[in-house]
Amino acid sequence: MEAVAVIVALMFAVFVALGVIAVVRSVRAVKRGVDRTVTQARRTVEDTRLKAKQYVQPGAPGEVAELRLSLRTSMRATQEALRAAAPDDPSLSEALALFRRLSTHGQEIDADLKRLEAEPDKARVAGSLPELRERVERVTHSADSLRWAAQDRARQFADDDLAMLSEQIRMEAGALRHWTTEEEPQAAPTGAGAGARTPGAGAGTGSAGAGAEGVTAPEAEPERPAITARDAWRQPGYSWQKTRRPESTT
Predict the structure, then answer these.
(1) Backbone angles phi, psi at 247, to 5 degrees
(2) Mind listing the pLDDT tens digit for each residue in 29-64?
(3) What is the DSSP letter of 221?
(4) What are the two backbone dihedrals, phi and then psi, of residue 239, each rounded to the nearest 5 degrees?
(5) What are the two backbone dihedrals, phi and then psi, of residue 232, each rounded to the nearest 5 degrees?
(6) Which H or E run contains 149?
(7) Which of 63, 137, 193, 216 has its CA 20 to 30 A from that of 177?
(8) Helix, strand, coil percent content, the chain, rounded in steps of 5
């Protein structure tokens, strides 16, 4: 009895441990989902605020909002494009590493623009804009170059795969029509060739009749077609075809 009690206690402890692990994993998954949703919501709110500020506030504040929005949009699009293509193309690992380094510079510029956005001195804002605009253009140009290169690479791979697939299908279609090459040497003559042999055949028949009366020439065996239809009763059908029963069966 003591052994049974120990076994039951161990099983209970194992079940409790498994339950705790499952609960912890579920909580972590839910937390990650909530964090992801909150991050996306904050990003959407920030982008909406920048778009509104871009059109509502003219001058330097609107230009600062425009630069931040352009930087965030370019960096986010490049990040999503590289992450989506990286699992299928290991060669993009170097591009991802370069983009991480570029993201560091992008975050620094975005922080500078955010501080400049809250700067009350309009003259300082106007004096700092040219340098920040140049930095933003350099970062966005680099991000766009990475994204466009990854997209062109994926498109080229798709075109090469489609060309190879089309060639394989063409070869398979030719193999499935193998009887066409067999019929070409046996094609019956038509037109003038058939008409030219008709008189010769008639003359031969007349001479044969004059030499040996009452003797008939053997009939020519009819030519068999190159492809015969399948016998529905002897050939096994496919799994999706219903086997037909002969009319004689009941």
Answers:
(1) -65, -25
(2) 877 777 677 777 777 777 787 777 777 777 788 888
(3) P
(4) -65, -25
(5) -65, -20
(6) helix 122-176
(7) 193
(8) 75, 0, 25
Whether 219 and 231 have beta carbons less than 8 Å apart is answered as: no
Residue linked to tokens 């193999």: 175
Which of 137, 131, 150, 151 lies closest to 71, judged by CA?
137
What global pTM score does this model have? Answer: 0.56
Per-residue burial over 63-80, b = 16 or more CB atoms within 10 Å of its CB, e = otherwise: bbbbbbbbbbebbeebbe
Question: Phi, psi (5° rounding) for residue 190?
Answer: -130, 165
Tokens (6 digits) for 122:
């309009």
C-alpha 195/C-alpha 187 separation (Å) is 16
Q: Work out the burial of residue 46: count CB atoms within 10 Å of its CB; fewer than 13 is exposed, 13-18 middle, 19 or more buried.
A: middle
Buried b (16+ CB within 10 A) or exposed e, 170-200: eeeeeeeeeeeeeeeeeeeeeeeeeeeeeee
The residues near 62 (Cβ < 8 Å, ≥ 6 apart) are 53, 54, 55, 56
pLDDT tens-digit series, residues 98-138: 999 999 999 999 999 988 888 888 888 888 889 999 999 99
What are the residues whose beta carbons fall under 8 Å from the beta carbon of 142, sequence distance 6 or more? 102
CA 56, chain centre distance (Å) = 42
Q: How far is it, in rounded angstroms, from Cα 105 to Cα 140?
A: 11
* CB atoms near residue 142 (< 10 Å): 19
Residue 62 and residue 37 in contact, taking contact as beta carbons nearer than 8 Å: no
